[in-house]
Design a protein that fits this description.
Elements (H helix, E strand, L loop, with lengths): L1 H9 L5 H4 L11 E6 L3 E6 L8 E5 L4 E4 L22 E3 L4 E3 L2 H27 L18 H10 L1 H17 L12 H12 L4 H16 L4 H7 L9 H17 L10 H14 E5 L8 E6 L7 E2 L5 E6 L2 E6 L10 E2 L11 H12 L6 H7 L1
Parallel strand pairs: 9-12
Antiparallel strand pairs: 1-2, 3-11, 4-8, 5-6, 7-8, 10-11
Helix pairs in contact: 3-7, 5-6, 5-9, 6-9, 7-9
The structure holds zinc ion (ZN) (2 copies).
One zinc ion binds next to loops.
Organism: Lophiotrema nucula
InterPro entries: H3K4_H4K5_MeTrfase, SET_dom, SET_dom_sf
Protein name: SET domain-containing protein
Amino acid sequence: MPTDDTSTRQHPRSPPTMAALPPGAPTSSLFAIRTTPHSGRAVFATSFILEGTLIWRSDDLALSVLLREYRREVCGHCFSYEHGRDLSIRDQDVGFAFCNPDCQAKWKEAQGPIGLQAWEKIEALVKGRSKEDAEMMDVDLPRPKKKEIDAAWDAVSSQAQLIRIARTAERATNADAEGEGVKVTKQHKKALQKALCNPVNPDVLSFCISGILHRYNHPSDWLKVLALAQDPTPYHNTDDLHAFVRSYLHLLAILPLPLLSLCTPETLYLWSVHDSHNSFGIRSLEDDGSEFFGYGCWPAASYFNHSCAPNIEKQREGPVWVFRAGRDVEVEEELCITYLSGEERKLSRGKRMLTLRRNWGFECGCERCEEIIV
Ligand SMILES: [Zn+2]
Ligand SMILES: [Zn+2]
């Protein structure tokens, strides 16, 4: 109607601050996201919030890694855990277990048909390997710098190209596909075989495939991942970097063809960048979360900064994170969660700072840390 049109033009529905929000950011009448000079984007209360109030539910799990050692005991979909008992439903082809048929069906639906093929390929690759492959990480190595990261990816670019050509030829030999005139030589096949001989890291492979599948199944959500990417040096140590580069080649060699165009250094690198600051540990719900099953990325949940004395409590309910006010919160107070797990919260200031620096790469300047300095 003409009158509505006029009023919309004169009074835009969204105030300018809302329009500037990155895709995937949480929105609520209780808080607003603003950019701060010191800690990037942060969440601030826009009204008084009573202790216990539900602040946000993050059901936007984009990527998750269940460590291989927990795959029989922790449900692939809802992450439930029965005190170390093997779950009743085990899908040997994809290497996941589930607490009930409903969880299995939901997991399958989320992966999609191409995703299921991808998990089967990875499972077949990992099954044939010895355990030593997975235990190579030396966590005390320094974080690789940008130059080292670029060099590691560059070093495999020609091998990657040869593998791509070898795989593209597969498509050409499929009965229903047109030949693409690619000549595959011994050199191409050798590059592929060489990639398969590299040591396998099942958890890094899971991370990579989970990220590639998310981009494949939800192309429009990729912007949410990019919106959170900040750190140019996301790898924890040199072993970690090389495990990613090797996993890239493994995946090029085995993934279903429709995923090959998304299996790029860019996709994997940007997920690592996202992960290095924004992932949440998936832990047991009892015993202060003493069992660490893996981790995941929930983009909307990533906007809360850390404090060692948080005013927001986060709780995992299946595959969803729920955020509640842990105490009364005044208007304009920053809403913070803690990135530390149960036991870590009790550490001394120095040890907390070390953990935060090592895992998330920042110096904590929260109330509780500052207090002790003065
Ligand atoms: Zn379940
Ligand atoms: Zn602190």
